Amino acid sequence: MSVLNIATRALLANQTVLQTTGNNIANVNTPGYSRQTAVLQTIEGQYSGSGYIGKGVDVLTIQRNYSQFLTRQSALASATSAGDTTRSDKLKQLESIFPGGTSGLGAAVNDMLNAFSDVASAPTDLTARTVALTRVSETASRMRSASQSLDDLQLGVKQEIAQKVDSINTLAKSIANVNDRIARAQGSGQSPNDLLDQRDQLIRDLNQYVQTSSIPATDGTVGIFLAGSQALVLGSTAASLTTTSDDYNDPLKTKVALLRTGQSIIMDENMLGGGSVSGLLKFQNTDLAEGRNLLGRLTLAISTSMNDQHKLGLDLDGKLGGNLFTPTVFGSGNILQPAAPATLNSITAGTLTLATGDVTKFAASDYVVNFSTATTGSVTRLSDGISTAFQFTPGNASQDGSFLFSNPATGNYDVSQVDGLKLGSVLGSAPAAGDRFLLKPFSTSASNISAEFSTPRALAVASPIAGKMGTTNTGSLQLTSLLARSNPPTNVPVSIRFTGPNTYIRSDEFPALDFNNPANFASFTPYVYTSGQAIEYSQAAKYPTSAVPFSATATSLLGNPPFSVDNLTITNPAAVTGETYTINVSSVGLDPVLGAPWGQATYTITGSTSGTSGPFASPAFNYNLPISIPISNPSLPGLSMNLTGDVRSGASVTIKPASYTEPVLSNWSLTLQGSPKAGDTFTIFDIKDSTNNNGINLTLNAGNANAMMGLRDTAMFDGSALTDGYASMISQIGIRTQSANYSADVSSSIAANLEKDRTGVSGVNLDEEASKLLQYQQAYQASAKVIQIAQGMFDTLMQTFR
Amino acid sequence: MTSSFIRTGSANTFDAAVRNITSRQSALASLQENLTSGKKVVRASDDPTGAANAERALTRISRIVTDQRALESQRNAITQAEGTLGDVTDALQRFRELVVSAGDGVHSGAERRSIAIELQGLRDQIFSLANRKDTNGLPLFSALGSALAPFVGPQASAPDYTFNGLPGQSASSDVTIPFTLDGESAFMNQPARDLVFNTKVSNSVDQLISTDRTLTTDNVVLSTTPDLTTNRAIVTATATAAQAAGAPYPQYTLTFNAMDSTTTPGTTTGSYSITENPSVSGPIADVPISFPTGKPTSIAVSAVPGLSFTLSGTPQEHDTITIDASPSVFSVLDNAIKDISNAANNNGATQAVSQALHNIDISMSRVSAIRGQAGDLLNRADRISTNQDKRSIQLESDRSRAEDLDMVKGIADFQNKQTGYSAALQTYAQVQKLSLFNFIG
User: Fold this and answer.
1) Of the N and C termini of chain A, which has fewer Cβ atoms inside 10 Å?
2) Bridge partners, A605 (sequence order)
3) With an 8 Å Cβ cutoff, is A579 touching chain B?
């Protein structure tokens, strides 16, 4: 009855195939399902004299169609895509916090500064003053609300990270479970297709959160590794991830750590690769931090410069101006020290202090201060990694410690601030080598800014200084601007008298001399006047013209008369720079017989800041006459002197400025235009000085309102004007968002392509299954026919015996 | 295993088709957002450079609006100041005509007094014009800053009028002109600059020059040549220095003494003394004179420090001549009114009128000079305004170029995308209908 056997087997085999096809059709839309194929195999034939007679068909196995390579590629690509898309989504939210146009923060800043124009037009008009104050308060509230939105975004991101880390842990446990079941099923000899599908799907899901690499083990389990090498799942055990903070316990940053066998390993987000968690981490720790720093810098620079300018004014009652905005106070949130488990600072390190310096130099970044020894170290700007070396002078019980930074131009330690920030240390601080600090100067400045007062009378619109022309002036001088630099003004009144169309003298140079007496005019230094150029308070000769403030010291004292310097005089005071000069004689001709100097000498001149010039050749000299080598301007700026005596190779002379105190000069900046005539005068005085102010009413003065408007053009924010600061800020965030959008587009299209390729192998195609249904239905029917024929054969045989 | 090159998974085909349709739909939606807002840059990330350019252009446009508004109020103030100076010129002109008529010899003292009353009215008008304020309450002539009423007077002690302000003129900038004009320059006189002196003739005993003789002076001029390098009138250095230190300019009084017409018949000899109050130049020696008795003579006076003038007529014992600096236009007017109204006879009236006319002419020329400056400022304001308008248009087009959508292109793109989207929807529906199962009976 082998025919019947063959037919029955064929019937069963085809039924199995139809069942598999049906299963495929049923799971056409099941995620992670891999199409299965029943593999048929011919049963080995029976040997007979006439050869091997076939014994039919049998189902060998149910095969799972998949490509390990494509599955892995697709998972990796979808991880990258998930990371990029998450970051791009969040950046879009960040971008919407900083809108352009009239509703933006930039327009508020502009309107605020422009409002001072109306105040300048009508200094006594309380309405204009109220509008200006309202604009100040509006700007502060927009800054605050932007900062609040950043905080909200930050909080959301932080919670999202925590939730996603939980999901990762659940998925890791599930993978470990499935691993275990697969290992057990391994003994049966047949592959547990559905478990494998389930595990692949879990791994794919896991990769949505964090990119993993999987390495198969011999027992059928798969190890899941994070950041290339940190095991999350090994066989049937799973480690867990937690969120934690960075070395400095910075509340604005989140890190994830892997907990395995009681050990916690902090993962760097840049090593995590793709996945939405690393996308969120990157967003929070770089993009959001930059947005916060940009906003903080804008706030701090604008509020500080406006406060400083406002304090240089007088209000309607003649009182000094106060702060317009709440002044920023740097606290423990701005200066962070390492927290456990990171290595802590030495016990005696104490805390640094932070203060603002030149606000126009601000860079939107955090900084790390590292002490390499107790007195030296470096400050690193985190945005671009540029570090500046410093020297630290520790304080004592009564004095704060102080920092001096390396001057990039000269390499000397003579700069008191880095990027507009001043550092110090609290009393009794003694940092040791290895101590480090994280400075976040801009992280909080926008969060609590507000307008300080709302009394329009207290708006300091008037300038504390005023100026008047001489009534007998005959030139065409006009006053362009007169800006105060200190309030109340110091060392006023000051008179300026023009001694010609391009020269003037000023009374504060020698306050003791009668400035109105023509006999004294020659005693004052003539300064150069240029129409439209500011006359600054510091524009004074550094060295007086009369006495010689320089001293010379000669070395190499051979021969007779000894090598020395004489006739050191100042020939051109304006050219004198105040440097220390060293003159080195490099070679000297010698008389071949006597060995005495004879012929010519060459020498170089080295200025302490201007560097080496030369070599210069001296005039020829003769040994039997007194040697005198003249050196003068311009090789020795403004000075003239002679080298005399026994000039030998290697001889050197040092010329130092003697200690000299600069005259105290007034704190203001004056700009005049037009051409003066000799004898024209201009007098600058305290506006409240009744002997000079001609009884004027200071409430009509709008000098400080004009100075406030002048802030609009101050170069700030990496060189762009104050009013353009916001434009560059939104473009900076826009560029980040744009590039994140591009990478999200690219990586999602790569992921889609790879997924298409993967499903090309593993996915169910309904048309294919339909054709299989037809194919195997026919085979099934044919097999049934064979049974019928076998039946017929049997019947035929039975009839023979009837 | 089947080659994956041509195989596609049914579920994935569905997913891919849905994904494509979704992305087309979102592209269409964002294009619609562009079309409805009229902007191609809705978010900074659409075009970061364009967004920054647009933002900067907006900043500059609002800056120009602010500057223009300030310029408008500056222009108003200067227009008002210019008009005021015009009124002042008219009033001075009228004042001058009345002074001329007062000099007519037919007038009696009473008639001169009635003219003086009319002159007083004009003086009050000019004084109130000088202290006029703009719409914001700022004095029009406050120079570099002043009290609410910059001109104060008349005061009991010399100088009779003061300018309570800081002399000088603020400069215009590229976008602004000053709010105020230099009132000191317009209405105040400086002896060293303007040479405005009032000379009075009298007799310390009779109180007047009797009608049987005349004694008048011409106008005071410089006795020294101006400093050519500075073009500055040197009145006297010491007096100017004293004035700079706060003292008023000295008053000089000539008194004729020891007039003797008997010693030498036909010739009168004598001398005049010069007193300086306050004294800054030290004692001044008496000057001897001699002239034919009874005949009008002409005496050149040059012993007054820095000044010289000529005396005409017949001086007698106790005749005095006082020379006062007039520190302001108002002093000139006050002196004219006082001297004309107090002139006891024609001699006094002639002296007062000739002095007044000369001094009014100097004052009018000063007012006109400042008025010319005002006109220049107004022209400048017009130029600035035109320039700013042009810049504003330029900036607006910059902004538009940076962020506004080209509507034609936008609508064309939209049509294009719409066609693509509807094709995608149709093909999706049709392709999804195709299945082998449709044909399996």
Assistant:
1) C
2) A583, A613
3) no
Per-residue pLDDT at B1: 44
Report the C-alpha gap between B151 and B157 in whole angstroms: 15
Q: Chain A contact for B318, CB < 8 A? A: no
List the Cα angle B232/B234/B238 in 5-degree steps.
130
CA–CA separation, B270 and B247 (whole Å): 33
Question: Across residues A135-150, what is the average pLDDT?
Answer: 93
Which residue from B minimizes the CA distance to A771? B436
Among A715-729, B61-75, B210-224, which stretch is predicted with the lowest mean pLDDT?
A: B210-224
Peptide bond into A634 cis (omega under 30): yes
Distance CA B439, CA B232 (A): 116
CB A671 within 8 A of CB A533: yes
Distance of residue A712 Cα from the nearest chain B Cα, in angstroms: 10
Q: Is A734 on the interface with B (CB under 8 A)?
A: yes
- List the single residue in B53, B70, B145 with the smallest CB-CB distance to A696: B145
**Which residues of chain B neighbour A711 with C-beta distances below 8 Å?**
none
Smallest Cβ distance to A124: which of B58, B74, B137?
Answer: B137
Instruction: Catalogue the E-assigned strands of A456-507.
Output: 465-469, 478-484, 494-500, 503-506
Is residue B36 within 8 angstroms of chain A, CB to CB? no
Strands B319-325 and A36-42 come out as: unpaired
What do you get for the CA distance between the two ends of chain A, in Å?
Answer: 20
Handedness of CA B158, B160, B161, B164 (dihedral sign): positive
Nearest-angstrom CA–CA distance, B268 and B261: 4
CB contact under 8 A, B142 and A700: yes
* Residues 6+ positions from B74 with CB-CB distance below 8 Å: A121, B176, B177, B178, B179, B381
B59 band by pLDDT with thresholds 50, 70 and 90: very high
Q: Are A466 and A482 in contact (CB under 8 A)?
A: yes
What ipTM goes with this model? 0.84
Contact assignment for A466 to B166 by CB distance below 8 Å: yes
The pLDDT tens digits for A679-694 are 889 999 998 888 888 8
- Output A625-629 pairs: Cβ under 8 A, ≥24 positions apart: A626/A561, A627/A597, A628/A566, A629/A601, A629/A603
Q: Rounded distance, CA B39 to CA B56, Å?
A: 16
Among residues 204-263 of chain A, which lie with CB inside 8 Å of chain B? none
